[in-house]
Amino acid sequence: MKRGIVIAVALGLVGCKASIKEAAIIAAIESKVRLPVNARPLDAYARFYAYGPDDVVVGNYLIPPSEPDLKLCEEEKAIEKKENVEGESASRYCPPPRGVGAGEHRWMSNYKWLPGGYDGGCNYIDVIYDLASERFLKVECHGSVE
To answer: Is the previous residue joined to 115 through a cis bond, with omega within 30 degrees of 0?
Structure first.
């Protein structure tokens, strides 16, 4: 049964910029991850993944706003255009396809373009997964809310 779910998830992600290999990695991570005590359930988060340095996968989980914030979305797009990385990152403020909603995940081409924040407590969760050992090196709430 579990194998069938992994295959279904893997096939479902092919159209979401994730190859079958990355889809299988996401399925493995999400089937094993144990969120911090103060975190919400996994499906409450929009989840972003990318290969990081040293044979790891870097993940950022965030609670998306209930409605897209088009002003902040446009500000992010302007920054990307200025930095010549237009369309390379994902946003918590934009509607799909650039934005990702709760319960959705996306594979990114570069870990430097993962969305994140400077605080937020368990509204943001940082994940680092070692591919060789298939173990988590980090699953932590990101900063504190002040």
So the answer is: no
Q: What is the pLDDT of residues 60-85, one digit of tens each?
A: 998 888 887 888 888 877 877 777 66
- Answer whether 111's CB lies under 8 Å from 129's CB: no
Q: Which residue has the tokens 């990114």?
A: 108
CA distance 62 to 80: 20
Residues shown for the chain: 146
Reduced to 3 states, what is the DSSP secondary structure of residue 51?
Answer: strand
Task: State the pairing for strand pair 46-52/105-107.
Answer: parallel
DSSP conformation letters of 86-118:
TTSS-BSSSPTTTB--TT-EEE-S-GGG----S
Count CB neighbours of 29 within 10 A. 20
Phi, psi of 59 (to 5 degrees): -125, 145
- Please classify residue 66 by burial: count the beta carbons closer than 10 Å to its beta carbon, then call 0-12 exposed, 13-18 middle and 19+ buried: exposed
CA distances from 84 to 32, 51, 57, 78, 110 (A): 36, 21, 25, 10, 14
Q: What is the pTM of this model?
A: 0.77
What the block records as the tokens of 67 is 């409605």
